[in-house]
Design a protein that fits this description.
The protein is an alpha+beta fold and 1248 residues long. The radius of gyration is 54 Å and the shape is elongated. This is Heterokaryon incompatibility domain-containing protein.
Length: 1248
């Protein structure tokens, strides 16, 4: 181990603390320093003047740890009480006190960006603190040993923790432990990262007072431990350039300065007491260290290397001055350089061979027996390829005195003259003068190999190097690799000159393969003798190898390999080297980029995305990526749906050209694809602003095709309202369990991913016209409705208002509701509706709208679930038909209105285990319902609301019951498509009467007047109960077409009939339809005057009357209640008449209601048909065969001659009429079809 004379006089001392200094840190402004001490204080110092800027008090215990954030804005200090105080970096004022640990805080460190402070303690844990909130981030890192040091890596990615038992490495972001290893034999006391993050240095305690270096990729130890300290290593600091290391120890009061490349001590600095802390100045020119001497000492580092730098740079005056200073300081200081440290050597290093020759010649002239000068001049002559003079000088040197240097010079000269055998012999002799010193012998073999190589003895040279490497295990392998590398570079340059490009590339690759992590050292200085002897430029050896390999690969046509080589080179060199080769780099990347760009654009046009990515990436890897290249690569990645990767490229394009809209447009698209919709919308807004602000009119014109987000929002809002127009007012959110009114439903949509996605995708005017907006809104608000029989304990609105139905406890209705929501949610539906709890029955307005909209809601439901509470699991076919659900009034429309229906048994399993998506498409289930309800399957499956077949619809509903009597009518509003006031509390006869009145008034359909039973108090022509419609209308006989034609022929023979028939036809054709007004029926009819009513006695309870009327056959009418004039209590003479309600179908024109219903079927958002106009009777096209008025009129007369249903009317005192209800249909028939005059009494009668 070399012996160094300690430097004892520091440049400056910083005095002021009252006790030992435990920690020191410098600020990035290069002007200030902060120290911590066992006197419980901190001090801020001016580095230039040594003046204390501020004495900082606040700790109540010894300050053990100190850290300054990398921006200099924060100071953190920790004490033995476990407290951390954070101070303002400029003023030194306290910002916050944190009770961080319960034991001593030994170490602190800020992360790279200053966002996190790590604290290590004897509490055996490390904690991380957010520097914005000063809250602890996550759980502590349990180290299970005393923490002695914590240090973030330069990038901040890793956190190293030294403990008394091991060293632990963590990923600072994920908290995952990356590595754990023993480190030193006992305690690990100190840590330091190399500036490039590739190495970690650790310091041990007294049992192992070494420094160890660890590779941060493999976490294996690099080389042997650094020895030199005899006691624990309290602190380690690394020079900002990564070339030097300073260490502080408790022994001998020394601070040691090491050279990182070869782990050699190059200086020691002496203190008067143990040293606890050490750091470099920001510029690396000074070391600051201190400890038990209560002060910080400042030492110069630059003086250690300046002398060597001076003569390398040719500053001979500085060199001589510094060397003189060194010799004055230490008379034994010498360096065993060839040519020693002389001006001649410096001239050789600088390539000034003429000066070197002149200086050495002067030495020889001064002392002709100076054998060394002859040998040195021989080296110079060899460098100048003056081989004869080189050989002569070498011979003269040996003749004066045989020495190692003399024989080396002769061996080189003989190789130069081509006398290889003589050279071999000479080098053998030279080895006899090495004193068997292995290092000298190894170096001699290197010189011999180089000399042979220069003499074109390449194989022998390589063999020598191989033997030296394998046969001498303790040899300097770095020297071998350096020589091998240089020789490969020379061969590569030769091959390159001969256009052997691939061979050249192989040589340059071999040269670079000779380099490892150790070759980061300054080989120009370490092997400067090679520079002196052979003129090698070791400073640029690796750079030359890199550049030449790139050029060779490019010339060999290996473009991809050339780019990879270039990228590897740029990643390997430092900033200074990059600056040196900037011109070459620009030229090289320009050559490579052009073909990549052309190929990338072609691949993009051809949608060859993978190739396009490779080519554009190659351009970017060459640092030639413009905003256009990044934009194009982003487009390619968008094509491959690589959203996140495309986003990075789009953001880079925007960064490179922030005034262009293109980068933001691509950013919007990528964010949209990545489902980051909020960010996408913001990017879109920026894109619009860039278009608006563009100085180019053509670019500004692009803005016209886009819509701003507010326009898109309005369009979406309109679509939502259209969708919700047919949805219940309140809906249950199956995902949250909450009942939502309309505002809450819209809010849920606006905060949903679907809405944000839609808004992010709605960017152009054309998007506003697309069905996508309506489709998304309709899909989001798809709703499931429940059809069920109300049971005893149903859940009501107030039971679930502002509550999560999923959390409610209970049975009955609550369990039913919860199960319904689960089924709906599991089927993929967000919204559900149940009539018991989703209507505010206290609000008359809401109740009115709900009842009148019920059919529409079920019609537009995505699914209607029918819950059969009385159908147990695994029931057989027929259970549905027997279910009480089939008997309820409301369930009629709840089944026929929806398009998709599923039946569930009382355990919420599917009826008959039928797993088809729609039970309306199940033949078995539909057949069962058809048989149970009497409604034909087509009507069940494809029911259309409206007035057509009104009498049949009433018959379908006649057997159904409701809990509230008014609901018998209200439940049919949707069936007939009417909208009427809902008046709970009115008489059920009034409710049914209003419905029937509306049917007649709007359709003119008088078939609903065909019933038997008790008359309604609302109007005597209407039944009191819907059950009156249960029997089907009586089927009356009719004539065949042949019979009709035969009768018409006979009528044509009667002139009176022929004359009167057209008049009758026109009169009936111009008769208005039946209508209601104020509960009064205005009924157009043919009147037959009753001439006699007589009581006919019967054995049954019925009362029968024999009735005679003009023009009609005699009739027998039965009633349960006697006609008034026959009452024993109050006999009154009344006027009666029989009437035939006028039915326009007898004109054989298309049915008006049917035409309207056909129109309704063409669209779902149907509206009820309007009433026919009284003033504009319908005139239809008749069949082609009925082509004249006479024929139509005679045909009508024949039809009027058939049996018909008649009404018995009794005249009241006010002149109005009331219908006399009968227990059976009154079937009448004209006596003589030819007696047309009997049919001519056509009137509109007002009936109460």
């Amino acid at each position: 181990m070399s012996y160094f004379i300690p430097i004892t006089i520091p440049l400056q001392e910083f005095n002021g603390h009252k006790d030992s200094i435990t920690a020191v840190a410098v600020f990035p402004d290069k002007r200030r320093m902060v120290t911590g001490s066992e006197d419980n204080t901190l001090r801020l110092w001016d580095l230039e003047t040594g003046v204390v800027l501020k004495k900082i008090k606040g700790h109540r215990d010894v300050v053990r740890a100190l850290a300054v954030s990398r921006d200099g804005q924060l100071i953190a200090s920790g004490d033995e009480s476990g407290n951390v105080i954070v101070w303002h970096g400029e003023t030194g004022e306290p910002l916050i006190i944190i009770e961080a640990h319960s034991e001593d805080i030994i170490s602190l460190d800020f992360s790279a960006h200053g966002t996190v402070l790590a604290t290590g303690s004897y509490e055996k844990m490390t904690k991380l603190w957010n520097t914005e909130t000063w809250e602890q981030q996550g759980d502590p890192i349990e180290c299970n040993a005393y923490v002695k040091c914590v240090r973030y890596s330069p990038s901040g990615e890793l956190l190293a923790i030294a403990t008394n038992d091991n060293i632990q490495i963590y990923n600072s972001g994920t908290r995952e432990r990356v590595a754990k290893f023993k480190g030193h034999k006992s305690w690990n006391l100190s840590l330091a990262w190399t500036p490039d993050g590739t190495g970690l240095l650790t310091g041990g305690c007294v049992d192992d007072p070494t420094i160890r270096e660890w590779n941060t990729t493999t976490w294996k130890q690099v080389g042997n431990p650094w020895t030199g300290h005899a006691d624990q290593i309290n602190a380690i600091a690394i020079h900002p350039a990564g070339t030097l290391v300073a260490s502080a120890s408790s022994n001998n009061t020394y601070t040691r300065l090491w050279q990182l490349s070869d782990r050699r001590i190059i200086a020691v600095f002496l203190h008067s007491s143990l040293i606890e802390c050490v750091t470099f100045s920001v510029d690396g020119n000074h070391i600051l260290s201190g400890g038990g001497d209560k002060k910080i000492s400042e030492w110069a580092t630059i003086a250690i290397t300046t002398a060597r730098d001076a003569y390398i740079d040719g500053d001979l005056c500085t060199d001589e001055k510094l060397l003189t200073q060194d010799i004055t300081t230490d008379a034994n200081n010498h360096t065993p350089y060839i040519l020693a440290i002389t001006t001649a050597r410096i001239a050789c290093v600088n390539g000034d061979l003429s000066t070197a020759e002149e200086l050495l010649t002067q030495d020889i002239n001064t002392n002709p027996n100076n054998h060394t000068s002859y040998a040195h001049r021989s080296f110079v002559m060899a460098r100048k390829n003056d081989w004869d003079r080189a050989l002569q000088d070498a011979t003269d040197s040996i003749n004066i005195e045989p020495t190692l240097t003399g024989y080396i010079s002769k061996g080189i000269a003989l190789c130069g003259t081509g006398r290889i055998p003589d050279a071999r012999a000479t080098f053998v002799v030279a080895s006899m003068y090495t004193d068997e010193d292995s290092e000298i012998l190894h170096f001699l073999l290197l010189i011999k190999a180089i000399a042979f190589f220069n003499a074109d003895q390449h194989d022998e040279a390589n063999l020598l190097l191989k033997e030296r490497t394998t046969g001498c295990p303790h040899a300097d392998t770095l020297a071998c690799r350096v020589v091998q590398a240089h020789l490969h570079v020379q061969l590569g340059i030769k091959a390159l000159g001969g256009a052997c490009h691939e061979e050249a590339a192989d040589h340059f690759t071999a040269a670079l393969d000779c380099r490892d992590s150790s070759s980061k050292s300054n080989i120009h200085e370490i092997y400067e003798d090679l520079v002196v002897l052979f003129g090698w430029d070791l400073k640029s050896l690796w750079l030359t190898a890199h550049q030449k390999r790139c050029d060779a690969l490019l010339l060999a046509g290996k473009l991809q390999d050339a780019v990879r080589s270039y990228r590897y080179m740029m990643d390997s060199v430092d900033e200074t080297t990059r600056a040196i080769c900037l011109e070459w780099s620009n030229a090289f990347t320009k050559k490579c980029s052009a073909p990549f760009l052309i190929g990338g654009d072609a691949a993009l046009a051809a949608s060859d995305f993978d190739r396009a990515i490779d080519l554009y990436s190659a351009v970017i890897d060459l640092d030639s990526g413009s905003h256009v290249v990044f934009a194009n690569r982003s487009r390619v990645k968008l094509g491959k749906r690589l959203w996140e990767e495309a986003l990075l490229d789009a953001q880079k394009a925007a960064e490179l050209n922030p005034s262009s809209h293109v980068g933001y447009e691509l950013t919007h698209t990528a964010l949209r694809g990545a489902q980051r919709y909020d960010e996408a919308i913001e990017a879109f807004k920026i894109m619009l602003s860039k278009l608006d602000d563009s100085p180019e009119a053509q670019t500004r014109d692009l803005r016209q095709q886009y819509v701003c987000p507010s326009e898109a929002e309005n369009a979406i809002q309109r679509a939502v309202w259209i969708v919700l127009e047919y949805a219940p007012l309140r809906l249950l959110n199956t995902f949250t369990g909450l009942l939502c009114d309309r505002a809450a439903q819209i809010y849920a949509f606006k905060t949903s991913a679907e809405y944000k996605e839609l808004l992010a995708f709605t960017t152009k005017h054309s998007d506003l016209e697309m069905d996508r907006i309506k489709e998304v809104a309709a899909a989001y608000f798809r709703c499931v409705l429940l059809s069920h029989r109300w049971e005893e304990t149903e859940v009501l609105l107030h039971d679930i208002q502002d509550k999560d139905v999923r959390e409610l406890n209970g049975l009955g209705g609550i369990a039913k509701l919860q199960s319904f929501c689960v089924v709906a949610r599991n089927s993929g539906y967000r919204w559900a509706w149940m009539d018991t709890c989703c209507i505010d029955k206290r609000s008359n307005t809401e109740l009115q709208e709900s009842v009148n909209s019920m059919f529409v809601w079920y019609r537009h439901s995505a699914l209607t679930i029918v819950y059969l509470c009385d159908v147990p699991p695994s029931s057989q076919a027929g259970a549905l038909a027997r279910s009480v659900w089939n008997q309820r009034g409301w369930t009629f429309q709840e089944f026929v209105a929806p398009k998709v229906v599923l039946f569930y048994q009382n355990d919420w399993s599917l009826y008959l285990d039928d797993r088809s998506p729609n039970h309306k498409e199940s033949p078995a289930i539909m057949k069962e319902l058809e048989n149970a309800t009497g409604i034909d399957a087509p009507a069940l499956i494809s029911f259309r609301p409206g007035m057509s077949n009104a009498r049949q619809r009433l018959q379908w509903a006649s057997s159904r019951v409701t809990t509230l009597q008014e609901d018998v009518a209200y439940s049919l509003f949707g069936i007939f498509g009417v909208h009427l006031p809902v008046i709970y509390g009115e008489k059920k006869q009034n409710a049914l009467g209003r419905l029937l009145q509306e049917i007649v008034a709007r359709s003119g359909d008088i078939t609903v007047l065909g019933w038997v039973g008790q008359p309604s108090e609302f109007n005597s022509c209407l039944p009191a109960y819907i059950t009156s419609y249960a029997p089907p209308p009586r089927a009356l006989p009719s004539l065949s077409e042949d019979q009709i034609q035969t009768t018409i022929s006979s009528l044509r023979e009667n002139p009176m009939v022929v004359d009167l028939a057209p008049e009758l036809y026109n009169r009936l054709d111009n008769t208005s339809a039946a209508r209601f007004a104020n509960c009064r029926l205005h009924l157009p009819c043919m009147v037959f005057r009753i001439t006699q009513v007589s009581l006919s006695y019967s054995t049954s309870q019925e009362t029968r009357y024999e009735v005679k009327a003009d023009g009609l056959d005699d009739l027998l009418i039965s009633t349960k209640k006697p006609i008034v004039q026959f009452l024993r209590t109050r006999p009154t003479q009344q006027t009666f008449m029989l009437v035939r309600p006028w039915d326009r179908s007898l004109l054989e024109s298309p049915d008006f209601a049917d035409l309207q219903d056909d129109t309704e079927s063409e669209r779902d958002d149907w509206t009820p048909p309007s009433s026919p106009s009284d003033d504009s009777p319908s005139r239809s096209v008749v069949n082609q065969e009925v082509d004249d008025l006479e024929s139509r009129a005679l045909r009508l007369v024949v039809r009027l001659g058939q049996p018909f249903g008649a009404f018995l009317l009794a005249r009241l005192r006010g002149g109005e009429y009331k219908r006399v209800a009968s227990d059976r249909d009154i079937i009448a028939q004209v006596k003589d079809v030819a007696s047309v005059r009997d049919l001519m009494d056509v009137k509109t009668i007002e009936i109460l």
